[in-house]
Design a protein that fits this description.
- The complex is a heterodimer.
- Chain A is built from eight helices and no strands.
- By secondary structure, chain A is mostly helical.
- Chain A has one domain.
- In chain A, helix 3 packs across helix 7.
- The longest helix of chain A is centred in the C-terminal third of the chain and has 23 residues.
- Chain A is globular.
- The N and C termini of chain B lie far apart (56 Å).
- The longest helix of chain B has 27 residues.
- Chain B is globular, with a radius of gyration of 19 Å.
- Chain B has eight helices and no strands.
- In chain B, helix 4 packs parallel to helix 6.
- Helices cover 75% and strands 0% of the residues of chain B.
- The relative contact order of chain B is 0.18.
- Chain B is mainly alpha-helical.
- The chains are: A mainly alpha, B mainly alpha.
């Protein structure tokens, strides 16, 4: 395995999109981006928690649809379409998703998808706006999509404890924590002073 | 290779992969001490050219996942059509300059094929070889278009084709192994990730 990895060390790779790119903004930068902001992290985990709470088919529809809609939001950011109050939307996503988990809200599937999709647009826009600043956009995008997916997976795994005694309570407490973190970021965004 | 009874089971099981790994390392361009190795690295260069990028393996992996979702015939025809497309793209490369259209086409292919996997689109089996052929043209063109001077095109292209087939067959095997509902969902989630990556970078290319 080690020898195969050594052999994969890039020796001749000149036809790639990254040709001529400068900077070190690649895979690691992309992996770091979603986990570097607590507002992003709690919202992603909450999507997984809610999916696990709602059960099939939401448990797999939410993690499949979220990256796609997030990419659409990212596309808007990349091409420079402004999304007013994007950071406010991200903070609101934490509050709302945290509350629906804490209160164990079970809306129709379509409504749950729409709610998650709306927030995915805000998160994607934030990632997309940062994309042109990085030297290796394809690697950066790969990194942040993978990191986002793994955060969903973390939420689903935590949410799967609902089959254990006390697991449901644990998830709902998790929802409260997410909502509080979201509220904190919301306060930072709002000019309350 | 002979293993006695005292040989740990994992050693006897893993020796083929170790030989393959050692072969990769020994075939690297750093080992050019032999007269016979003048063109010995062209194959490896082609292989590495394909594998060390992101856009080429991503597109081919998405194709492999999609073909596996569509069944055995779709896989078989894709395995045939992809190398033909790669060769056709390689033949076309010397006659045309690589413009941004090729990059955009490859990124669009990633986005579309990934979306097709995520949605498990029920297309007829004949669509897959057409998609594989077009993807092959799009990938063969830039890969061999930037081949180092002095390299044997046949060997370099062989490396590219083998790398593409490795990705295609590997992804197909992965998707075929996914039998439980959870594993099938994981394959579709992987498709949505691939599509999301392609879509965002496509936007960046179009905006540039």
């Amino acid at each position: 395995m080690l020898s195969v990895l050594v052999s994969l060390w890039p020796l001749l790779a000149v036809a790639h999109i990254e040709v001529g790119s400068a900077g070190d903004g690649g895979l690691l930068s992309g992996l770091r981006h979603p986990v570097s902001g607590l507002d992003h992290v709690v919202a992603m985990v909450a999507v997984g928690l809610w999916g696990a709470q709602l059960g099939a088919p939401a448990i797999w529809l939410l993690p499949i649809s979220f990256p796609l809609v997030m990419a659409l939001g990212g596309l808007l950011g990349v091409i420079g379409v402004p999304l007013p109050q994007a950071e406010l939307g991200i903070a609101l996503s934490g509050v709302c998703l945290g509350l629906v988990v804490a209160l164990k809200v079970r809306p129709p599937l379509a409504l749950a998808l729409v709610l998650v999709a709306v927030f995915a647009i805000f998160h994607g826009h934030s990632h997309g706006t940062a994309l042109p600043a990085f030297g290796l956009p394809l690697l950066y995008a790969t990194g942040f999509v993978v990191a986002t997916g793994l955060l969903h997976l973390s939420g689903i795994l935590i949410g799967s404890t609902n089959r254990w005694p006390g697991g449901e309570l644990l998830i709902r407490v998790g929802g409260v924590v997410v909502a509080l973190v979201g509220a904190w970021f919301l306060m930072l965004q709002l000019p309350l002073a | 290779m002979v293993f006695d009874a005292a040989t740990p089971a994992c050693v006897s099981r893993c020796w083929p992969s170790r030989i393959v790994g050692a072969w990769f390392v020994l075939g690297s361009p750093h080992a050019q001490a032999h007269q016979a190795a003048i063109h010995g690295t062209d194959f490896t260069d082609g292989l590495m050219q394909f594998l060390t990028s992101v856009e080429f393996p991503l597109g081919t992996i998405a194709l492999g996942l999609f073909a596996a979702q569509r069944g055995r015939d779709a896989v078989a025809w894709s395995v045939i059509a992809l190398p033909i497309g790669l060769i056709a793209g390689a033949i076309a490369a010397p006659f045309a300059a690589m413009g941004p259209g090729v990059v955009i086409a490859n990124l669009a292919a990633i986005a579309i094929l990934g979306l097709a996997v995520a949605l498990a689109v029920p297309v007829p089996a004949f669509v897959l070889p057409i998609a594989a052929f077009l993807l092959g043209i799009g990938q063969g063109f830039p890969n061999t278009g930037t081949m180092p001077s002095g390299a044997l095109p046949e060997l370099f292209l062989l490396g590219v084709v083998v790398a593409a087939l490795l990705c295609l067959v590997g992804a197909t095997a992965l998707a075929w192994k996914a039998q439980t509902p959870w594993q099938r969902v994981a394959v579709r989630a992987l498709g949505s990730w691939i599509s999301a990556i392609g879509l965002m970078v496509l936007g960046l290319q179009l905006a540039a």
